Amino acid sequence: MKRPNVLNKAGKAARARVLAGIGGFLAAGLSLGLSIFESRNPGEIAHALPGTRINADRWGVTLHAATVATTMPNGSRLTPGKRAVVVNLTIENLTSQSSNLYGEALALANITGASRPQFFLDRDQEILWDLQPAMPEEVSAVWEVPMTQALLASLDVTVIGAVFKRADNLYAAPGWFTGSAVAQVDLPIAENGTGAMTRDTR
Amino acid sequence: MIRFLATIIGILTAAALLQVFQATTPGYAQLTGPILTSGAQKDTVSSQTFSVRIDKAVQAKTLVLKRFSRTIERQTQGTWLVVSAELWAFQETMPLAGASIRGASGRLYVQTHRADAAPQLLSLKKVQPGLPTTGILVFELPEEEATDMTLILSKQASPRLEDEVHVHLDRGMIESRDKVEPGNGGI
Questions:
Q1: Which segment of the chain is annotated as a signal peptide (chain B) (predicted)?
Q2: Which CATH number fits domain B33-180: 2.60.40.10, 3.90.1010.10, 3.90.950.10, 2.60.40.1240?
Q3: What CATH number labels A47-201?
């Protein structure tokens, strides 16, 4: 009488384990599938007009105008075979600490092969180093673009947000991490020189 | 039945206790944070590895610099703060990579690179033990932050288990000028 009972018990335990295993794999598969689906179908990015302030979590960004130039704003030369796409913007550090990672907040959506942007402070045309908190500055962001790259009538600038984690996964230290795009701005590209005029009239 | 209840209560108590432990354990970043030493502007503030004495603190709207023997002026929408200080290292040669000002709101203003042309910058010097080193630090911050400032100095930019000296700046001891021109003899 005892033997089948033991077998029955062992069978039950095995079945429970198999079920738990299947459940776990199902959950993992579902989560993986969802994340793949989300990355393949990004949500619509909000469109913003030039001159409106965009809150990109870590940075407050207002894009004003875009121009094409043949030198850097401080007068230095460009890489041979390249021209510069200059975006005038106001940018504010909304965090509690000085930072120079504002380059991560902007990306050109309709230009391929652009360099990482260089930032210049409009007040004295010098390199913008750290952006100090609570001090919005008028700056020029410069991307070097190959001459062969055709430019459209307008520049699609994507403003990228950031995520603050009170405790990161590695050190449990607070920090900012790259987030998703928060807004897209269509900036009409003016020829060199007219960009400065657009700035005065804003 | 009683044994069953006792087991349940035991498990719940253990869970609650673990929750309390988890909530009250300081984070890794906090446990391996800097070792603080605080002091006032008029004093020499000494940590285990180095000490600081503030010589002068000047606030100005315009910073005058010489670059390639050409004089340039740098404006700010806030205010420049130039601090001249004397540093002693006790045990070994040390740079001064971490220098920032905590303003009235608690925001942290790291020393600015916009004054890199200035002479005698402490961030470009090394402090040798036994040789007191003087130099300046330049900060840029909004006026309203300048009402209550603390100078934070350390060997590394973000010190971990290393000394960090906090010097509270006394408003009455900060000079206010139109222009400040850091020279080889300080400010």
A1: 1-29
A2: 2.60.40.1240
A3: 2.60.40
Radius of gyration of chain B (CA): 23
Contact at CB, B112 and A126, closer than 8 angstroms = no
Q: Domain residue spans in chain A? A: 1-41, 47-201
* B-contacting residues in A 151-170 (Cβ below 8 Å): 167
User: Which stretch of DSSP H or E encloses residue B133?
Assistant: strand B133-141
In chain A, the residue whose alpha carbon lies closest to the alpha carbon of B110 is: A98
- Taking the Cβ of residue B158 and every Cβ of chain A, the question of whether any pair is shorter than 8 Å is answered with no
Q: What is the helix (H) or strand (E) element at residue A61, kind and residue range?
A: strand A59-69
Q: What does the domain layout of chain B look like in residue ranges? A: 33-180
ipTM, two decimals:
0.85
Q: Is the dihedral of CA A74, A79, A84, A89 positive or negative?
A: negative
Which chain B residue lies closest to A168 (C-alpha atoms)? B29
Tens of pLDDT, residues B127-164? 999 999 999 999 999 999 999 999 999 999 989 999 99
